[in-house]
Amino acid sequence: MRARLFILTSFCLLVLFSACTRLVEKADFTFINGVEPESLDPAIVTGQPDGRICLALFEGLTSRNAAGAIQPGMAERWEISPDGKTYTFHLRDTKWSNGDPVTAHDFEKSWERVLNPNFVSKYAEQLYYIDRGEEYKLGKVTDFKQVGVRALDDRTLEVRLKNPTPFFLDLCSFTTLLPVHLPSIAKWGDDWIKPGKLVSNGAYQLEDWRIDNFIRLKANPHYWRADTVRLKIIDALPISNASTAFNLFYAGKADMIIDKSLIPTLLLSEIRQQPYFQANPFLATYFYRFNTTRKPFNDPRVRQALALAIDKDRIVTRITKAGEQPAGSFTPPGIPGYTPPAGLELNLAKARELLAQAGFPNGKGFPKFEILYNNSELNKQIATEIQSMWHDQLGLQVGLRTQEWKVYLNTLDSLDYDVARSSWVGDYNDPNTFLDCYITGRGNNRTGYSNPEYDRLVAEANTLRDPAARMDKLKQAETILIERDAPIAPLYYYIGIALFDPAKIGGFEPNVVDEHPLRELYRRN
């Protein structure tokens, strides 16, 4: 294997070495983060690469440890009312990276910013569990004082929820609920996220950001547990090409890769045998979206037919090859107390029947359409395979369309696509983190899908305190989503893969939310 990989490696080292040596001071740790972040504003970001950096720069009321478990963050403790609707958080005496105190008012004002009707945040719905939060976002309530969040004093934050929300402490660690330094935003406007201007309260501060080159993080001396942060300088490299990423790692120019799509599939069977290959299941699903606002994808029979014609076993055995399981449901198995529905399995006869019922017998008259995917070798291979399936089995003419990450996200948001590759990683260990996405009008819906019955079932589920009854209601909703309406077609459940040498790097633990805080990592030698 070493000789084979050396041939692959030699090409890009000459290209990349200059980028790695421009830095005056060598980083303690360098990792490949995937695509270039769309932003470092936690209220805006939606992708894992962006969120990974934001969670290093900022810290919420709660945070996650290396094992993914929720622990106190900016809040050192809290009380929950007997009815489960009111949380009282007591904040630590800590500071922003510029020395300003971190206060409960920072959280109140940061959440108000997210919920402001004029501010675009695709994850704003994560604050809709707060009493009147959604109403304020939609302009139905105009006075934020009526929303269920207020700073009682500098160190005490009271949050009132609409209903008991068993995963609210998980949400308090999520990117959208992270506090931001409002005076910096007022002073710098959109430039507040740039080096020298970004003020953070997390384990790190932003030292440098060179687009398409690297992001440098430096330990924040004002962080409340700065003495536990062992990696003082971290470089994150924005590389989306799998061969380039692997070659850089293999040559020792990067310590870690944390993204399955950045591992060349042609080498995966060999890489899996190496001691630096780390894999574990986690809550994430690879799936295709259908634009339900565009004909003929506005017909659920068409969407069902396309889903039924996908051979998912072929995809995981021929392409992904890392032990992934074909996905029937959108919600992965393994969430305590929840058994997801079976979903739509391969059934070519039924697929052809549904297509004929929709007016396209043997594919006749079906307009040519495209599969959109963000630029990566894995996404291209999967899209090419599904293109072939739909052509050979249903007689459809399918094109391929690739875009860079930021453009791709904008295309999804504007519904300027036919069918699109997507993935979803659970933000917390509950089915709601998946099913909430497809409520009408939610920022991460990105399909145009709307079904009042589905909306009602998810909403009702989140009013129930009986865990079994709640899970049953969520299962009813998911059955409608993936079997009857099919605005999405789940393909497989992810296996979390990272490449690093465990003899050299510690603090990385597998967990169901695939969150690996940079502040927890350390060098063993």
Quickly list its features.
525 residues; disordered N terminus; alpha+beta; 6-stranded mixed β-sheet; D-Maltodextrin-Binding Protein, domain 2; 3 domains; Dipeptide-binding Protein, domain 1; 20% strand; Dipeptide-binding Protein, domain 3
* Largest beta-sheet characterization: 6 strands, mixed
Q: Look at the helices and sheets and give the structural class.
A: alpha+beta
Tally the structural domains: 3
The total beta strand count reads 19
Oligomeric organization of the protein chains: single chain
Give the full name of the CATH homologous superfamily of the largest domain: Dipeptide-binding Protein, Domain 3
Number of helices: 16
Low-confidence stretches: 1-23
Q: Mean pLDDT, as a whole number?
A: 93
Rg value: 23 Å
Could you say what the CATH topology of the largest domain is called? Dipeptide-binding Protein, domain 3
3D shape: globular
Question: Could you walk me through the main structural features you see in this protein, from its secondary elements to its overall organization?
Answer:
By secondary structure, the protein is of the alpha+beta class. The chain folds into three domains: 1-58 and 186-276 and 500-525, 3-Layer(aba) Sandwich (D-Maltodextrin-Binding Protein, domain 2), CATH 3.40.190.10; 59-179, Dipeptide-binding Protein, Domain 1 (Dipeptide-binding Protein, domain 1, Alpha-Beta Complex), CATH 3.90.76.10; 282-495, Dipeptide-binding Protein, domain 3 (Roll), CATH 3.10.105. 30% of the residues lie in helices and 20% in strands. The chain has 16 helices and 19 strands. The strands form five sheets. The chain has a six-stranded mixed β-sheet with strand order 13-17-12-16-14-15, with helices on both faces. A five-stranded mixed β-sheet has the order 8-9-10-1-11, with helices on both faces. Helix 15 runs antiparallel to helix 16. The longest helix has 20 residues, at 2-21. The two termini are 27 Å apart. The model is unreliable at 1-23 (pLDDT under 50).
